[in-house]
């Protein structure tokens, strides 16, 4: 299973970015998918998750600003990030669950596959 993130970059506060995660080696439609991030000197932080059926769950810090979505036909996961803040600066990782889950997966231990990350930097 391979996950490849793209779409990161440098943006000013208040602007938007959309991250993508292309998945191969799995059927994708049965996998719970999620986004995590890690800022310099900090631990990995949950951002958002989406179940195979499209149910979503967000961290409080991004709720109302970020939207997670998936295109099963394209085997691609997305993260639309609006109203970006400097504190959103981090390496962003997508993850795929090792099995099927009805609900969004928020426990990182339940994700069996991870991408290499894409850097998002928000300037003030």
Low-confidence stretches: none
* Alpha-carbon Rg, integer: 13 Å
Tell me the fraction of residues in β-strands, as a range. Answer: over 45%
Euclidean distance between termini CA atoms: 37 Å
Structure description:
This protein has 124 residues and is mainly β. Helices cover 0% and strands 51% of the residues. The chain has no helices and eleven strands. The strands form two sheets. Strands 2, 4, 5, 6, 9, 10 and 11 form a seven-stranded mixed β-sheet that branches. β4 (33-38) and β5 (44-50) form a beta hairpin. It is globular and about 40 Å long. The relative contact order is 0.32. The model has no long low-confidence stretch (mean pLDDT 95).
Write the layout of secondary structure elements.
Blueprint: E1 2-6, E2 9-12, E3 17-24, E4 33-38, E5 44-50, E6 56-58, E7 66-71, E8 76-81, E9 90-97, E10 111-114, E11 118-123
Parallel strand pairs: 2-11
Antiparallel strand pairs: 1-3, 3-8, 4-5, 4-9, 5-6, 7-8, 9-10, 9-11
In short:
With 124 residues, this protein is mainly beta.
Features of the shown structure:
single chain, 124 residues, seven-stranded mixed sheet, four-stranded antiparallel sheet
């Amino acid at each position: 299973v391979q996950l490849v993130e793209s779409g990161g970059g440098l943006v000013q506060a208040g602007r938007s970015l959309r991250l993508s995660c292309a998945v191969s080696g799995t059927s994708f439609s049965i996998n719970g998918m999620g986004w995590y991030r890690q800022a310099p000197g900090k631990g990995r932080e949950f951002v958002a998750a989406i179940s195979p059926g499209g149910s979503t769950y967000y961290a409080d810090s991004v709720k109302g600003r970020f939207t997670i979505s998936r295109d099963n036909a394209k085997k691609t996961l997305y993260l639309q990030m609006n109203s970006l803040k400097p504190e959103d600066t981090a390496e962003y990782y997508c993850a795929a669950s090792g099995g099927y889950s009805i609900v969004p997966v928020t426990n990182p231990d339940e994700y069996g596959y991870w991408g290499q990350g894409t850097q998002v930097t928000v300037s003030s």
